[in-house]
Amino acid sequence: MTSKKTSSRKKSGAQKTARKKKVTTSGKKGVKKTKPDVLAQLKKIGFGVLILVTICLIGAMVADLLIRKPPPPVPGKTAGQTASSPGTKDAQKKSVPREPSVGISKDSRGADPISPQSGMMEKNGHPVLYEVFEETKDPPRSGSDSRPLAEKGDGLVDIALIIDDIGYDQKMAMDLYDLEPNISFSILPGSPHGRAIAGMLKDKGAQIMLHLPMEPVQYPDVNPGPGALLTSMSPDALIAQLEKNLEDVPGASGVNNHMGSRLTTEAVQMYQVFTILKKRNLFFIDSITAPRSQCRAAARLLQVRFGERDVFLDNIQEIDYITGQFAQLKKIALKYGSAIGIGHPYPATLETLKAELPKIKGKIRIVPASRMVTIPG
């Protein structure tokens, strides 16, 4: 009897053990089936995120390529190129500026390219920069009210030569004066030797002008340098800066713009500038760095003596090129009775003028810029 109970107990225990093993086994099988499912889901999610990120990156790259604007073209240095004008230009520039790129703009009247001079440095450690412009094949002005009447009697026509960006090289300024005393010298405010050169040239009877820095379209990448008039200035600040610049170039009888492809298109601010010119009885010559310049309209409104340049002589500092530009200037003068050329104190410009000026004697005379201005009708 006892053995039967014992046997029954053993059998019952064995059955319980078997059930436990079965439960445990089935639990393990369930776990084994769940783990692969979770891993698969995680892999799918990760792969989806990766695809989404990739699409976003590609879209951003495409958008960047579509909306990115190329930098404004700026002329690079050519063989034998030198320069010496201020700025952080703008570059000009600007600034981009004020660093130039290779090539010359096809329409420089809407831009302010610049050119660095190797060797000469500003006080702030930046290379000295000159503005450079594309040639003008046709005179930008030909209306009856845009040029003064040529003097009668001697049969000569007039050319005014304005040398911009004076103030960095005293010797070059004096060499140009010795070559032709009727050259007009446009001096940059804040330049290292501007005041001294103005004094020396004024004592000799030369015509002095203020080369007035104005905001270009590339600002602030192109920086017109110390004393710049900016579109962001209040009327009081703009007038105060203009008056300070005039004080920095003592003896100036007229003004022309340094850069200014943006500011010269702003009518209200040009009226403010011309109000001061009228008050001081100064003339203004538009360098024409913008095709929609408001300078003529301001001069007409305020009855300020006014003129416009015809040719930039030396945007490429090579004697052959400058000789061709000077020939263009002579052609315009002979056709219209007068012309205004703008150049810079480059060695190549000096050498070209040494060769060309003697050839025009008896046909064309060099006159101060003040002889080339009239109140627009």
Q: Name the helicity range.
A: 25-40%
CATH architecture of the largest domain: Alpha-Beta Barrel
**CATH homolog superfamily of the largest domain:** Glycoside hydrolase/deacetylase
Taking the sheet with the most strands, its summary is:
9 strands, parallel
CATH top level label of the largest domain: Alpha Beta
Tell me the β content.
Answer: 15-25%
Which structural class do you get from the secondary structure elements? Answer: alpha/beta
> How many beta-strand elements?
11
Q: What's the SSE pattern?
A: HEEEHEHEHEHEHEEHEHE
**Under CATH, the topology of the largest domain is which?**
TIM Barrel
From the alpha carbons, calculate the radius of gyration and give it in angstroms.
37 Å
Average pLDDT figure? 77
Low-pLDDT runs: 22-33, 67-113, 116-121, 132-139
- When the domains are counted, the total is 2
Our measurement of the CA-to-CA distance between the termini, rounded to an integer number of angstroms, reads 142 Å
Task: Give the CA-based shape.
Answer: elongated
Total of helices: 8
Structural features, described:
This protein is α/β, with parallel strands linked by helices and 377 residues long. It folds into two domains: 1-68; 108-372, Glycoside hydrolase/deacetylase (TIM Barrel, Alpha-Beta Barrel), CATH 3.20.20.370. Helix content is 40%, strand content 16%. The protein has helices at residues 2-67, 170-179, 194-203, 235-248, 267-279, 295-302, 319-336, 347-356; strands spanning 114-121, 127-131, 157-166, 184-187, 207-214, 254-259, 283-286, 306-308, 311-312, 338-343, 364-366. The longest helix is centred in the first third of the chain and has 66 residues, at 2-67. It is elongated, with a radius of gyration of 37 Å. The N and C termini lie far apart (142 Å). Mean pLDDT is 77; it is low at 22-33, 67-113, 116-121 and 132-139.
